[in-house]
Amino acid sequence: MLTLTENASTVVKTIVDQSIEGAEAGLRISQDAEDSPALHVIATAQPLPGDQVLEEDGARVFLEETAAETLDDKVLDAQVDEGRVTFVLRDEDEPPADAPEYGHPNGTAG
User: Fold this and answer.
1) What domains sit in the chain, N to C, each tagged with a CATH number?
2) pLDDT in tens, 9-49
3) Which residues, at least 6 apart from 46, have a Cβ–Cβ distance to it below 8 Å?
4) ∠77-79-81 over CA atoms, to 5°?
5) How far is CA 62 from its chain centroid?
6) Separation of alpha carbons 92 and 98, rounded Å
7) Per-residue pLDDT for 96 more than 90?
8) Sign of the C-alpha dihedral, residues 60, 38, 71, 99?
9) What is the pTM of this model?
């Protein structure tokens, strides 16, 4: 199942808190079709029937069935730059883009 980084959890909670009131509110991720590269993200008051509900560190994410299958082995991260949010997906076994490489004192893999 999709997992969230600490950053993503914080951003999801912030977006939902600023958009929707209610204890059941969360961020819903949906996908038009299995082969569609586009994912749709919207704050919503509650999950729709059939949605998988993911709760991590107080963040609630609702995954539409097709999106849940696509994101099954992914990690959701979030970056905020000048108030603009960018969500980033990576494989579970892939290190974060900003993770240092180890093996050499200056962080390079030399």
Assistant:
1) 3-91 (2.60.300.12)
2) 999 999 999 999 888 999 999 999 888 889 999 999 999 99
3) 22, 24, 25, 26, 62
4) 175
5) 10
6) 15
7) no
8) negative
9) 0.82
Please give the Cα distance from 40 to 104 (Å, whole number): 41
How far is 41 from 16, CA to CA, in rounded Å? 11
Q: What one-letter code names the amino acid at 26?
A: G
What are the backbone dihedrals phi and psi of residue 27, each rounded to the nearest 5 degrees, phi first?
-105, 125
In this predicted structure, the answer to whether residue 104 has a pLDDT above a threshold of 90 is: no
pLDDT digits (tens, 9 = 90+) for 51-65: 999 999 999 999 999
- 90's CB contacts (< 8 A; 6+ apart) are 74, 75, 77, 96, 97
